[in-house]
């Protein structure tokens, strides 16, 4: 009984802490969006809010990194992101180029610091 | 919006199931599927690093279906943080899903669509599927948008589950620097993807302000930093947009 609970516990936590707090926003959007159309001001505003929060998450993942990424210095993480973004803008707004350049700068810099 | 004749739409499928299949195939060949593969390899590696099982990773991908929320969840729970802290962080990161669903629903909701039919497409809404829905759905007749959207969501989700497992099993063998590189994939890719989707001044301003304000708030340990970033930066960008429209 105890071992069954131990095995199921991570999944219960996943539902309570991961699924429900996240899904509630989708369901709220679904319920509250009825009667709104694409051009309505609340939709335009909420798109701006969504973009800003996503930008915040991106900055957070870079500046307050976790796991093995946290072992790479902040200046290198930010520098790599800036280089990647500059390459993205320079080369036809290619996401692939941006990610590739950012990764190369991060890994080359990290390798150089280690040696 | 004007009412359109069937010929108005540039894409048209024979049936709902054909629209679903076309949606399922839509991710493949786009840069998004590469980015998502990379992102979920990173998330899989993270889950492995924090001691979660491959099953837990897979189920979390399917039920959470939001990269940042999944990363926050894994990092917060894995580092021994409290469940309450993790739940608040996930709730805050999930706020951005609300306007995504609100802004995509007018495209999905045809004349006969029931709320129940919209539940699955709503669950599939995350950054990539949102950006791609806004881009691809207008070309389809309204009655084929829901099956197409469900197909597209399934295609991206299947890709993510497989990529997550690849990352999970790769992580065991990777040195720390390479694992750090895997974790960097997520923010780098999302930064470029969001900028690519930002066509108007409104979106660009919200992106730039969000990037600048969030670390500042977090640095001074201001609570609900993501919420304030979104409402503050988003509303400011919206006000600038309105002023510009009004003076035009």
Structural shape of chain B: globular
| Terminal-residue CA separation of chain A | 52 Å
Largest interface: A-B, 77 and 103 residues
Q: Helical amount among residues of chain A, as a percent range?
A: over 70%
What's the order of the H and E elements of chain B? HHHHHHHHHHHH
> Please, what is the oligomeric state?
heterodimer
Work out the helicity level of chain B.
over 70%
* Termini separation of chain B: 22 Å
Low-confidence stretches of chain A: none
Structure description:
- The complex is a heterodimer of chains A (115) and B (248).
- With 115 residues, chain A is mainly α.
- Chain A has a domain of 51 residues.
- Chain A is 79% helix and 0% strand.
- Chain A contains 4 helices and no strands.
- In chain A, helix 3 runs antiparallel to helix 4.
- The radius of gyration of chain A is 20 Å and the shape is flat.
- The model of chain A has no long low-confidence stretch (mean pLDDT 87).
- Chain B is mainly alpha-helical.
- Chain B folds into 2 domains: 183 residues, no CATH class; 49 residues, no CATH class.
- Chain B has 12 helices and no strands.
- In chain B, helix 1 packs parallel to helix 9, helix 2 packs parallel to helix 4 and helix 3 runs antiparallel to helix 9.
- The radius of gyration of chain B is 19 Å and the shape is globular.
- Chain B starts with 15 loop residues before the first helix and ends with a helix.
- The N terminus of chain B is likely disordered.
- The interface between A and B is large, with 77 and 103 residues.
């Amino acid at each position: 009984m105890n071992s069954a609970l131990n095995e199921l516990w991570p999944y219960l936590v996943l539902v309570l802490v991961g699924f429900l707090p996240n899904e509630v926003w989708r369901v709220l959007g679904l319920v509250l969006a009825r009667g709104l159309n694409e051009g309505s001001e609340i939709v335009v505003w909420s798109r701006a809010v969504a973009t800003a929060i996503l930008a915040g998450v991106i900055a957070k993942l870079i500046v307050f990194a976790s796991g093995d990424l946290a072992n790479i210095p902040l200046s290198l993480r930010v520098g790599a992101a800036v280089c990647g973004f500059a390459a993205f803008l320079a080369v036809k707004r290619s996401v692939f180029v941006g990610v590739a350049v950012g990764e190369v700068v991060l890994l080359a810099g990290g390798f150089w610091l280690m040696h | 919006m004007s009412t359109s004749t069937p010929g108005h739409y540039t894409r048209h499928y024979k049936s709902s199931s054909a629209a679903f299949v076309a949606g399922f195939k839509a991710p493949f060949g786009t840069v998004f599927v590469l980015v998502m593969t990379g992102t979920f390899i990173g998330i899989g590696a993270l889950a492995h690093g924090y001691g979660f099982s491959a099953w837990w990773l897979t189920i979390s991908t399917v039920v959470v279906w939001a990269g940042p929320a999944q990363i926050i969840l894994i990092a917060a729970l894995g580092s021994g943080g409290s469940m309450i802290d993790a739940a608040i962080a996930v709730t805050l990161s999930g706020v951005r899903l609300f306007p995504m669903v609100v802004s995509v629903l007018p495209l999905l909701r045809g004349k006969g669509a029931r709320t129940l039919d919209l539940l699955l497409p709503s669950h599939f809404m995350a950054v990539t599927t949102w950006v791609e829905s806004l881009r691809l759905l207008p070309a389809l007749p309204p009655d084929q948008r829901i099956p197409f959207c469900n197909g597209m969501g399934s295609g991206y989700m299947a890709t993510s589950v497989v990529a997550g497992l690849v990352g999970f099993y790769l992580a065991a063998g990777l040195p720390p620097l390479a694992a750090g590189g895997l974790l960097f994939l997520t923010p780098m890719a999302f930064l470029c993807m969001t900028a690519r989707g930002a066509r108007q001044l409104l979106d660009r301003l919200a992106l730039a302000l969000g990037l600048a304000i969030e670390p500042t708030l977090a640095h001074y340990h201001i609570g609900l930093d993501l919420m304030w970033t979104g409402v503050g930066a988003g509303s400011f960008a919206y006000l600038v947009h309105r002023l510009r429209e009004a003076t035009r």
